[in-house]
Specification:
Elements: H1 3-18, H2 23-26, E1 52-62, E2 65-80, E3 83-94, E4 97-106, E5 112-118, E6 121-128, E7 136-144, E8 147-155, H3 165-171, E9 180-187, E10 192-208, E11 211-222, E12 227-234, E13 241-248, E14 255-266
């Protein structure tokens, strides 16, 4: 494989897995997953988050080749349209350049309000709802290689935006060993809804360059096995992840990515508990 082709493949794969990524669920292909068989949205408490800047060292392995990569996430309390919100910005250094994924969510429910991607793919997406009947809608545009396509999807119920959004929402739930949740996640790439399943299988002490943390160990399964893996979330709030390992199953073989927290700057939030 030529160096240029390898760089292109790595860039596309890394973008799909980490960010719109939306990452993790967004990368899954196929028809809509079950829309009603979910549970956990009512347990999300976004006030448990706190303003923070988190940096991660990452390693991606594809076709037997490994690449060292990095990403930075920032969480900031903001106000959007008069509503209290969190703004999550995920910056990913890929072989193809910097990719920025900005997500604005409701401060309490963590349901998405808007999402904006900048990089090889440019996307602007707005979420409306939930309505009195519980439905939501996602609409906007996605542009790649000069080609623009509209995005519009009626969502059956509360739905997350994908990428690290589902893991962030999971960390705002009352976790304990044995806890399970199944969440809807919208994939803008193929305009479908995926099912993301999570189970807390235990606890573990994890050493990282940013320090040693007591964590919950969470198994994840997105898209019926398309993406599987394990994340380690801090046991104390805010429960941001400190370690991440996922495998994507494709017709060309498995693709793996691992992330470890390398630095953390956190400031107290008046709403954090």
């Amino acid at each position: 494989m030529s160096r240029l082709l390898l760089r292109c493949v790595l860039a596309l794969f890394f973008a799909a897995v980490l960010s719109a990524a939306a990452t993790v669920p967004a990368a899954a292909q196929g028809p809509d997953g079950p829309s009603g068989d979910t549970g956990g949205f009512e347990k999300i408490d976004g006030t448990k988050l706190a303003a923070a800047t988190l940096s991660y060292d990452a390693t991606m392995k594809i076709d037997g080749r490994s690449r060292d990569l990095s990403s930075t996430q920032t969480f900031a309390p903001t106000s959007t349209g008069g509503a209290d919100t969190w703004t999550l910005v995920n910056e990913i250094e890929t072989p193809g350049g910097l990719r920025t994924d900005s997500l604005i969510v409701d401060r309490s429910s963590l349901l998405p309000i808007s999402r904006h991607l900048r990089g090889r793919v440019v996307m602007d997406l707005a979420y409306t709802g939930p309505s009195t009947a519980g439905g939501m809608e996602a609409s906007g545009t996605m542009k790649r290689r000069g080609q623009s396509k509209p995005i519009r999807k009626d969502l059956d119920g509360p739905t997350l935006a994908g990428g690290v959004h589902d893991v962030v929402a999971l960390g705002a739930m009352p976790l304990e060993p044995g806890f399970r949740a199944a969440l809807r996640v919208f994939s803008p790439q193929d305009q479908s809804v995926k099912r993301a399943e999570f189970e807390v299988t235990g606890t573990e002490t994890v050493e990282t360059p940013a320090g040693t943390f007591e964590t919950y160990v969470v198994d994840l399964n997105v898209g019926g096995g398309y993406i599987t893996g394990t994340v380690h979330l801090r046991k104390t709030a805010p429960r941001y992840y400190v370690k991440w390992a996922t495998e994507v199953t494709t017709g060309q073989g498995p693709r793996t990515i691992r992330q470890t927290l390398s630095s953390m700057e956190m400031q107290a939030s008046p709403d954090a508990k």
